Amino acid sequence: MKTRIISALVALPLLIFIIVSGGMWTHIGIAVLGLVGMYEFNKAISKDVKGTHIIAYLFGLIYVIFIDKIIYTAPLFSVFASLFTITLLVYSVLCYKKTNYVEVVAALFGFFYACFLLSHVYLVREYDHGKLLIWLAFISAFGCDTGAYFSGYFLGKNKLCPALSPKKTIEGSVGGIITSIVLCLLYGVWINKTHPIADVNVLLLCGLIGFAGSIISQIGDLAASSIKRQVGIKDYGNLMPGHGGVLDRFDSVIMTAPVLYYIMLFLIK
Questions:
Q1: Which pLDDT band holds residue 249 (cuts at 50, 70, 90)?
Q2: CA-CA distance, 207 to 96, in Å (whole number)?
Q3: pLDDT tens digits along 253-263
Q4: CA neighbours within 13 Å on the CB side: how many for 5?
Q5: Which of 124, 2, 109 is nearest to 56 (CA)?
Q6: C-alpha closest to that of 65 among 1, 119, 128
Q7: Cα 250 to Cα 262: distance, rounded to the nearest angstrom
Q8: In sequence order, which residues have a C-beta less than 8 Å from that of residue 197 and are 6 or more positions away?
Q9: Contact status, residue 151 vs residue 175, Cβ threshold 8 Å
Q10: What is the pLDDT of residues 53-99, one digit of tens each?
């Protein structure tokens, strides 16, 4: 417990600084977390460094450095994804005795899971009104976790997915969804009163991320547990002692940030 508290006291201010600062610092912070997440995923799948890992790290580095151009210049993301896939396939042909298609697929998936999804934290932060709305990704994820824990503790009877997470219950899941919606709506009320956003239905946006984010965050948590069980590990890493690695700590935010970003794209013109 002492280790967890100390880690939290160090990590939380750093995370707040990264998010509040915006611009370069958010870019660098999320880039580092994304690349570390890729490393954790690849290490979980294969203990040894593979050629496919090197290719994935190279393309991950290119992506996080040029993310603004790759995302907002229409054809570039398609070009990037195509080159990434083709490079892995060429490597699998040239080095077919050293690799296999499982490693190729894992390297590609590791990038999109750990780096691409997490990069939406930066994309949200730099989007219109992102300085205010980025916190919804965390409120939805952590609010759902907290609500699910207490609802499950006091009311939980029916197991949600015992094969992956024996302690999670249906009652806890529903409680997490309700808690997330309530907290996001309360945050929306606060925004409307203190920092009104013209031509944006803030309460609708907050309600949608509270609902959709809480569901997808639970799926993200279960998906992370599924991968860890299949490869036989407890944590992806030890970047934050007592909390695990990037993928352990941000397995829910990895899912809520993209949901928030695409909701913002539809509702903020």
A1: confident
A2: 50
A3: 999 999 999 99
A4: 2
A5: 109
A6: 119
A7: 19
A8: 129, 132, 191
A9: yes
A10: 999 999 999 999 999 999 999 899 999 999 999 999 999 999 988 88
Radius of gyration of the chain (CA): 19
What's the CA angle centered on 37, arms 225 and 163, to 5 degrees? 5
Find out whether 171 and 151 touch, Cβ atoms under 8 Å: yes
Beta strand ranges found along 121-162 (DSSP E): 159-161
pLDDT tens digits for 173-184? 999 999 999 999
Task: Count CB-CB contacts under 10 A for residue 42.
Answer: 24
Are 30 and 60 in contact by the 8 Å Cβ rule? The answer is no
pTM, entire model: 0.93
What distance, in Å, lies between the first and last C-alpha atoms of the chain?
A: 46
pLDDT of residue 242: 65
Find, among 222, 219, 233, the residue nearest to 43 by Cα: 233
Residue type for 118, please?
L
What residue type is 174 in one-letter code?
V
Residue 196 backbone dihedrals phi, psi, to 5 degrees = -60, 140
